[in-house]
């Protein structure tokens, strides 16, 4: 199983802080494995939004059709863009 690095690469607000409940800031990084990140974890709504791609990336190797080593996912409200990338477990 791969761990997933999830980084907030962009926050599209004047303040650079998401107006949502978690107040996500650009540059925050979360490592997601068998447990969700704590104590300063990812926004619960963002975690739900990235869930399907996170799970697929955790359980598979890079596929031939993947042109990059990461996927960017824009949070449904449009303020935060998260970048997901695989971290191989040793």
Topology:
Layout: E1 3-11, E2 29-32, H1 44-59, E3 70-74, E4 80-87
Fold and architecture overview:
- This protein is α+β, with helices and mostly antiparallel strands and 90 residues long.
- Helices cover 18% and strands 29% of the residues.
- It has a 4-stranded antiparallel sheet, covered by helices on one side.
- The longest helix is centred in the middle third of the chain and has 16 residues, at 44-59.
- The radius of gyration is 13 Å and the shape is globular.
Mean pLDDT: 89
Q: Give the % helix.
A: 10-25%
Continuous helix count:
1
Largest sheet: 4 strands, antiparallel
Radius of gyration: 13 Å
Beta-strand percentage range: 25-35%
- Please state the structural category: alpha+beta
> Uncertain spans, ≥5 residues at pLDDT below 50?
none
Dominant shape: globular
Strands across the major sheet, in which order?
Answer: 2-1-4-3
Number of strands: 4
**Helix-strand topology string:** EEHEE
Determine the N-to-C terminus distance. 10 Å
Q: Which assembly state applies to the chains in this document?
A: single chain
List keywords for this structure.
90 residues, alpha+beta, four-stranded antiparallel sheet, 1 helix, 18% helix, 29% strand, globular
Please sum up the structure shown.
This protein has 90 residues and is α+β, with helices and mostly antiparallel strands. It contains one helix and four strands.
């Amino acid at each position: 199983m791969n761990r997933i690095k999830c980084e907030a690469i962009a926050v599209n607000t004047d303040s650079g802080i998401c107006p949502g409940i978690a107040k996500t800031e650009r540059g925050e990084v979360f490592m997601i494995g068998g447990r969700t990140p704590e104590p300063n974890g990812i926004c619960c709504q963002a975690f739900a939004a990235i869930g399907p791609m996170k799970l697929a990336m955790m359980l598979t190797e890079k596929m031939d059709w993947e042109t990059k080593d990461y996927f960017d996912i824009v949070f449904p409200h449009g303020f935060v863009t998260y970048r997901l990338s695989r971290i191989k477990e040793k």
